[in-house]
């Protein structure tokens, strides 16, 4: 397992719900937990992944997501079992929408 930590500047999220969990850890999938973070204009992400050596890919996918979505003020935990970038982006959007009370 590899653990990666990132921080991205992002517009503040409008929080409307409790922490949100999305996805299932399993072959080729991941789970994402979104909860309140410490910095209102930053998104902190910790990833535990079975796929070693993909730090720059994670940085690119998460950076694009943080730029395109208001995710500031969140702390995101990701448990990954080899999900593709498309699945990561989909699950992030689902978890963030759930965190905001189902709105997006």
From TrEMBL:
It comes from Dechloromonas denitrificans. Its main location: cytoplasm. This is Malonate decarboxylase acyl carrier protein. NCBIfam families: malonate_delta. The modification O-(phosphoribosyl dephospho-coenzyme A)serine is found at residue 27. GO terms for cellular component: cytoplasm. Covalently binds the prosthetic group of malonate decarboxylase. It is found in: Cytoplasm.
């Amino acid at each position: 397992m590899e653990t990666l930590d990132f921080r991205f500047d992002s517009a503040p999220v409008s929080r409307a719900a409790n922490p949100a969990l999305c996805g299932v850890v399993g072959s080729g999938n991941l789970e994402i937990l979104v909860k309140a973070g410490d910095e209102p204009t930053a998104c902190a992400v910790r990833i535990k992944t079975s796929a070693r050596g993909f730090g720059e890919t994670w940085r690119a996918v998460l950076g694009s997501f943080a730029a395109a979505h208001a995710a500031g003020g969140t702390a995101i935990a990701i448990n990954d079992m080899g999900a593709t970038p498309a699945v990561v982006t989909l699950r992030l959007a689902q978890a963030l929408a759930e965190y905001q009370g189902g709105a997006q």
